[in-house]
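Re: the 126-residue chain
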Amino acid sequence: MNQPKNCRHKEIADPYRWNATTIGYAVRAKARIEAAPCLLYAKANPLFEYMAANSMTLDKIIVNTRNVEAEIKEEFDGDFEVEVMNEPFKHFGIDEAIFAALEKEVRLKGGSRLFIVAFFSVNLIL
């Protein structure tokens, strides 16, 4: 989406950093041009928002499909190294960490255990 001509924030060229006012200007500008029904604003991909916000700390992105790899390379012009991996969750142990976190018994680093017990309480007021 291009920056609207009547926007007061002309110094903001990156759509990932637009605030609500800038988005409002963009929506109003497009509403004047397009005929209804039309899409006035579509929020950016959350992955791309995260990457834009943390671009200074990211060196490498690991994805599981070639389509996402192509989208990232197209959007960010090679700012990040992109690697395609078949099962990144399994490779980095994320699946096991999620399953362990959802168990009723959580093992803590010091060797102790935490038991999570769900109980329901019913209060009657007569």
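The first strand starts at residue 60 and ends at 63.
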